[in-house]
Write a structure and sequence with these properties.
The chain has a three-stranded antiparallel sheet, with no helix packed on it. A two-stranded antiparallel ribbon has the order 1-2. A two-stranded antiparallel ribbon has the order 5-6. By secondary structure, the protein is mainly alpha-helical. 25% of the residues are buried. The protein is built from twelve helices and seven strands.
């Protein structure tokens, strides 16, 4: 296919994708009353980017299973819809408090009522419950399928079926030019291999890290894309710092596991420098060892979250101006939202690329082989 035709095809797909997204973002509040439009603000934005026990797609609520394990007592499993049906005391199942997306065991007084502060805020009671019940029977482990867990499971299933279909196509069409899904995936895989992993790790060692780096790249990229489809419930997997922490921790653990003696030598006893300088470099290198994965975690989390917040803020401005000025300004801001969503499609790929590149550089530093004799001679 002609390159110019493919370019315009991708632009058209991005535009259609963005228009559908804007329509989905606006479908809920756009049909609400005038008072509800004015309430579209910080709470809605924070709710959109935060994790939750259910999926909310416009007026439709899709329940997810809440699965809690109490040591010594067993499991308590129920639907997330029950979290919104508290009794007259504000309790769910007679023992839980659900407030601002957080589920805790209620701290009860002698009469069995939930403990609150002087303002009647239940979250204070939830905090007290964590202190009162530490080490007690009401401590639980949360294994619930939340919105972000659902997003990760969905992305894993998509990746599994996509790459399985591509592998089967290669088996059927061995020696033939790629076609269909193959023609989309092959350039991406070759790009990650030839322009990211191989230059960063080196010709000798890059092959054993290719599965890990490809998995990280496609996992981040597809989750970034899913997060831009609001009719999936506003998934924000890579905008969750726990997820980015886990990804960065995987890279760090692999780096420490495969590191050779040259890597450790340059950290604990840098060659060719005086002893006082060695001690100073030891502190600097140990700090650098932790700050690199930390920057990986923060960079991905901050960029993806910022993109979601900006888009939702523009949509909030749309509703605010429509209620004050009229629909003309709303049309302009809606078009600006389309532009922002197209840019976010680019950011989704760039962030996956940057994370994979910096992770590959970390692994490359761990397996790099140094010729100290040549260095001293030079």
């Amino acid at each position: 296919m002609n390159v110019a035709v493919m370019r315009w095809m991708y632009i058209l797909i991005a535009l259609i994708f963005s228009l559908i997204s804007v329509r989905s973002y606006a479908s809920g509040p756009a049909h609400d009353s005038h008072e509800e439009k004015e309430e579209f603000g910080t709470a809605e934005i924070l709710h959109h980017i935060s994790d939750d026990f259910g999926l909310h797609i416009g007026p439709i609520s899709i329940p997810l299973p809440v699965m809690l394990y109490f040591p010594g007592q067993g499991w308590d499993v129920f639907s997330s819809t029950e979290l919104h049906h508290a009794d007259e005391q504000g309790l769910i199942h007679g023992k839980y408090l659900y407030h601002h997306g957080k589920l805790t065991v209620a701290a009860l007084d002698a009469q069995g009522h939930p403990m609150v502060d002087e303002h009647g805020h239940p979250e204070i009671a939830a905090q007290e419950a964590r202190l009162i019940n530490i080490g007690g029977k009401d401590v639980f482990y949360n294994f619930s399928i939340t919105k972000n867990v659902f997003g990760m499971l969905l992305s894993v299933l998509l990746l599994f079926f996509i790459f399985r279909a591509s592998a089967q196509a290669y088996a059927r069409r061995e020696g033939m030019a790629p076609k269909g899904l193959q023609s989309l995936l092959e350039p991406l895989i070759l790009f990650v291999r030839d322009d990211v992993v191989k230059p960063s790790i080196g010709e000798k060692h890059y092959r054993r890290f290719m599965p890990l780096m490809l998995t990280i790249f496609f996992f981040i990229w597809i989750n970034n894309l899913l997060g831009l489809i609001p009719f999936l419930g506003g998934l924000n997997v890579t905008g969750n710092i726990a997820v980015t922490f886990a990804l960065a921790a995987v890279v760090l653990v692999v780096q420490l596991a495969v590191a050779n003696k040259n890597f450790w030598g340059h950290i604990f006893w840098f060659p060719g420098v005086p002893v006082p300088v060695k001690l100073l470099l030891l502190v600097i290198e140990l700090v650098g060892l932790l700050t690199k994965p930390f920057s990986l975690m923060i960079r991905l989390f901050a960029n993806i979250s910022a993109g979601h917040i900006i888009i939702m803020s523009i949509i909030g401005i749309t509703f605010a101006f429509q209620s004050v000025v009229g629909h003309t300004v709303g049309v302009v801001t809606s078009l600006f939202t389309v532009v922002m969503l197209i840019l976010e499609l680019l950011v989704a790929a760039i962030q996956a690329y940057i994370f994979t590149l910096l992770g590959s550089l970390m692994l490359g530093a761990a397996v790099e082989e140094h010729d100290h004799g040549h260095e001293h001679a030079h």
